[in-house]
Specification:
- The structure holds 2 protein chains of 2 kinds.
- By secondary structure, chain A is mainly β.
- Chain A has no helices and 11 strands.
- In chain A, the strands form 2 sheets. In chain A, strands 2, 4, 5, 6, 9, 10 and 11 form a 7-stranded mixed beta sheet that branches. Chain A has a 4-stranded antiparallel beta sheet with strand order 1-3-8-7, with no helix packed on it.
- Chain A starts with a strand and ends with a strand.
- In chain B, strand 7 and strand 8 form a beta hairpin.
- In chain B, strands 2, 4, 5, 9, 10 and 11 form a 6-stranded mixed beta sheet that branches.
- Chain B is globular, with a radius of gyration of 14 Å.
- By secondary structure, chain B is mainly β.
- Classes of the chains: A mainly beta, B mainly beta.
- Chains A and B meet through strand 5 and strand 10 of A and strand 4 and strand 5 of B.
Chain lengths: 114, 114
């Protein structure tokens, strides 16, 4: 357990509504990541953060934004949810110091967009 | 970016037999190769990793081998047990740059029959 909590764990919403997923960590890790997992695609990086207010895009960032105003919280926002964003979302942190590569994942947030 | 291919997508073995999962990568700059195990309804868990300065690493019943020339790496599980049943993901990254971004394979569903 790397001290990662994701909320909500499950959410059903309608197309066009905004959604925010929260990732909270308790161990002061600098690097945080949002991945999505879809059948046949493995895990794909949406956005990542390398410090407070420092974020960058991953490979599937369209339709998503992120914010990190505190070290412990990394928020993923879908401004206007679409059915293609139905997925399981995982937050991850990098442990073990600067850029070791060792990622540890949360338990996931399952989002269904109707 | 990096492209990671993983085979097979499904694997069924009898308890006690060995299981092998293979991955290839495209970016010769990649130097960190972790393997994750994901049980149903949970986040991926790091089970073993290898860095490009070694060719093999073992941890009890699991081992990983790396062939940098051929750009492929493999996960070997010996004496499989029913609790090894899960989805396994390989990944690759260029440790030391790109802030620990991992590129994942599409996963292998391993089923171990008692």
């Amino acid at each position: 357990d790397a001290g990662i909590t994701q909320s909500p764990r499950h959410k059903v919403t309608e197309t066009g509504t905004p959604v925010t997923l929260r990732c909270h960590q308790t161990e002061n890790h600098r690097y945080m990541y949002w991945y999505r997992q879809d059948p046949g695609h493995g895990l794909r990086l949406i956005h990542y953060s390398y410090g407070v207010k420092d974020t960058d895009k991953g490979e599937v960032s369209d339709g998503y934004s992120v914010s990190r105003s505190k070290t412990e919280d990394f928020l993923l926002t879908l401004e206007s949810a679409t059915s293609s964003q139905t997925s399981v979302y995982f937050c991850a942190i990098m442990a073990g110091g600067t850029n070791t590569g060792e990622l540890f994942f949360g338990e996931g947030s399952r989002l269904t967009v109707l | 970016g990096e492209n990671v291919e993983q085979h097979p997508s499904t694997l069924s073995v009898q308890e006690g037999d060995s299981a092998v999962i293979k991955c290839t990568y495209s970016d010769s700059a990649s130097n960190y190769f972790p393997w994750y195990k994901q049980e149903l309804g949970k986040g991926p868990q790091l089970i073993i990793d290898i860095r490009s300065n070694v060719g093999e690493k073992k941890d009890q019943r699991i081992a990983v081998t790396l062939n940098k020339t051929a750009k492929h790496f493999s996960l070997h599980i010996t004496e499989t047990q029913p609790e090894d049943s899960a989805v396994y993901f390989c990944a690759a990254s260029e440790r030391g740059s790109t802030l620990g971004r991992l590129y994942f394979g599409r996963g292998t569903q391993l089923t171990v029959w008692p």
